[in-house]
Amino acid sequence: MIDKASRQDSLVVLTEGAIITALAMGLSYIPHSTGVSSIEFVYGLIPMSIYALRRGLKPGLMAGLVWGLLDMLLRGLSTGGVLNPFQGIVEYPLAFAVVGLIGLGSVRVQQAIKNGKNALGLIIFYSAIGFFAKYFLHFIAGGIYWGSYAPKTMNPWIYSLVINGGSFVANMIMLLVLAVILNRIFKQLIIPKN
């Protein structure tokens, strides 16, 4: 039997996940192009990173999955971002869900913060795992499904690597800058009170 405190904790985690997912989705509507063809900042990765580090792997994966489904329904289908069901599943629910892999570092990051150590390196390392997994899936889908959009003289896999690798690097730079700025408040952002 689940006790009342456990249910309340689960409700808090679920509520936080819903708020973070809504925030990530809302941030998707802010212009985010770098000016280079198809290389984009994904601002929602920042709150998702914080949530996964705060609540762990499973909540991070679930929040990312819901974010991916919402993005596919609200943006992907209406903008031509879904070419077929397989590509849609890989590039939306699956690619967004794996961002939750950042939660693999939840315990280590929280312990470092509680012990007064600088957790910046750990945060960047585990965020890189989630970001890389997301853009690796986009790279695979890009090579398979988006190859016809590559310049005629360029191999589709190289084109996908440039676009998705560029987006990975751009988002890692964004994370690095924001992590340095937010370094002083990591405790409030990442350590749950309950």
Overview of this protein structure:
There is one protein chain. This protein has 194 residues and is mostly helical. It has one domain: Arp2/3 complex 21 kDa subunit ARPC3. It is built from eight helices and no strands. The longest helix has 27 residues. The protein is globular and about 55 Å long. The model has no long low-confidence stretch (mean pLDDT 92). It comes from Companilactobacillus alimentarius DSM 20249. GO terms for molecular function: thiamine transmembrane transporter activity. This is Energy-coupled thiamine transporter ThiT.
List keywords for this structure.
194 residues, Arp2/3 complex 21 kDa subunit ARPC3, mainly alpha
Sequence-ordered SSE layout with sheet pairings:
Elements (H helix, E strand, L loop, with lengths): L3 H24 L17 H11 L1 H23 L5 H13 L8 H9 L5 H26 L10 H27 L3 H5 L4
Helix pairs in contact: 1-2, 1-3, 2-3, 2-5, 3-4, 4-6, 6-7
Keywords: Membrane, Transmembrane, Transmembrane helix
GO cellular component, one term: plasma membrane
Organism: Companilactobacillus alimentarius DSM 20249
Would you report the number of β strands? 0
**What name is given to the CATH topology?**
Arp2/3 complex 21 kDa subunit ARPC3
Euclidean distance between termini CA atoms:
20 Å
Q: What is the CATH-assigned architecture? A: Orthogonal Bundle
Please state the overall shape, judged from the principal axes of the Cα atoms: globular
Query: What's the tally of helices?
Result: 8
SS class: mainly alpha
Report the top-level CATH class.
Mainly Alpha
> How many domains, in number, for the residues?
1
Percent of residues in beta strands:
under 5%
Runs in which pLDDT lies below 50 for 5 or more consecutive residues are: none
**Percent helix among the residues?**
over 70%
Mean of pLDDT: 92
**Quaternary state, please?**
single chain
Largest sheet: none
Order of helices and strands: HHHHHHHH
- Cα-based radius of gyration, to the nearest Å: 17 Å
GO molecular function: thiamine transmembrane transporter activity
Transmembrane segments: 12-30, 36-53, 60-77, 89-107, 119-137, 157-182
Protein name: Energy-coupled thiamine transporter ThiT
Keywords: Membrane, Transmembrane, Transmembrane helix
